[in-house]
What we know:
Layout: H1 2-23, H2 39-57, H3 59-73, H4 75-79, H5 86-103, H6 106-117, H7 124-151, H8 155-179, H9 181-187, H10 191-199, E1 202-204, H11 205-225, H12 232-253, E2 259-261, H13 272-279, E3 285-289, H14 296-312, E4 316-320, E5 339-343, E6 346-350, H15 355-366, H16 390-408
Parallel strand pairs: 3-4
Antiparallel strand pairs: 1-2, 3-5, 5-6
Amino acid sequence: MIFLIGPLVGVSFIGAVRTYAEASGLGGTSIGVGEAFSPLDGIWVPLFVAYEIAATFLLPFVAIRLVAGDRQSGALKLELQHPMSPLSRVGAKVFVLFGGWCLAGIPALLAGILWKTYGGSVYAPELAGVVLVHLLNAGLTIALAVAVASIAENPSTAAILMLSFTVGAWILGFLASLRGGLWEQIARFTPEAMLDKFQHGLIQLGMAFVALVFIALGLGVASLWTRLGVPARRRAFESFGLIAAAAALIAACTFVHGSWDVSENRRNSFPRADQEALAHIQGPLRIEVHLAPEDPRRSDLEHRALSKLRRVMPSVEVRYVSATSIGLFEQANPGYGEIRYDLGGKKTMNRLTTEEAVLETIYGLAGVTPPQEAEPAFAGHPLMAAPRGAALIFFGLWPALVAGFGFLIPRRKT
Length: 414
């Protein structure tokens, strides 16, 4: 895994730097195109796609080999002879796995150093947000892999179960985008949803707590099933009790609304003057949106306005209404496309999905004068630089270094 992570990061980083340079005006494109270009979108998110791939297709099998391999070879029976609690035993294995994942993060550190030497801008809070979400994603992957490896009889069965969970999460995300409603609410807790939010500079405290609960659940289930001397029925009963407790904690985490916009261009927030004005508006706000899940206007409304509005006004309630998933045959319905607002009994309706239109409508219902103070536009950090030395480091030096260490590490004699 550590051998392959270098070339994976190299492909992502080199492609990101070249695209960033072209968007900034390199190679004959218009000068100034990159003035609003953010390193978060242009460099960090594409760079860490390599770690998303590794966490999906490499890290789970390392964890399964470490846990299920001990069970299949009989090493687990020897481990059980030592006076060590099951949770401590599982925690030791997870500590080693997480340490290996941190070691695999060295290529990302090298990419950051290279980007800095090219003259690129680094905004620490947004980079820290990306690193945090990928650490949480790795923790979720390790916890789930350790749990299924402890339950399964052999590594191949554990690998199949792990792939089933991965594919199931993808299907859940697809159903959420297609049908919305309950599926959309459930899909909020998938790793893909968490990655999407955190990678775009929005740190949600509730979602982070949910991830930690899932990690604790995986480690708890794994520690229960490593007790080979306990009857399987009892272990299953205790596992269901642990799952029920975790479900209650997750339900409680949904009421945690704390969040931080760590992006440099504040993409997840209204202008500060508007945030202050909205915070002083009293009364519950209900918004009923008559748009289908696949209607692009619904996505535009959600990402540009409603997601920001929820962070400022916790009492806001948004309800989506549609008879179909694509809305193609609902166009003839005179009510389709309407956005209905209800603020403390005052109601209005329009069909505008822009951020400005939503704010203007809410101010009108509340009888508040819109703030006139305008924030300066984000200038961006254009950079026309070539990825000098990156190919040599990621495709040459890193694999050679890892292979060299692999040959130098003493092997146990059989």
